[in-house]
Amino acid sequence: MERAVWPTLALYGAAALAEIAGCFAFWGWARLGRSLWWTLPGVTSLCLFAWLLTRADVDFAGRAYAAYGGVYIAASLLWLWLVEGARPDRWDAAGALLCLAGAAIILAGPRAG
Hints:
mainly alpha; flat; single chain; 0% strand
């Protein structure tokens, strides 16, 4: 059965944004001295992340999580650049491209049966 890779990657992008934002809320509280109240939207965002992953058109959770990992890595480097103001270097970019290629292979690879 052939699956639509692009909609799944878009869903993973939304999940990555939710996960990174949720984790960053805790980072802000624990590492940047922000208010404990920062964790409330963080928890909501992490719940949204978990729900979004269940929407992926993948038969097995482990495969969904494995493919998601590549998207998460690329999204984390975008967060680094756009939110934290630190530009990723060429090694970051090369690693992210490699991970995205791996995610695409996991999602689009032919399956037996």
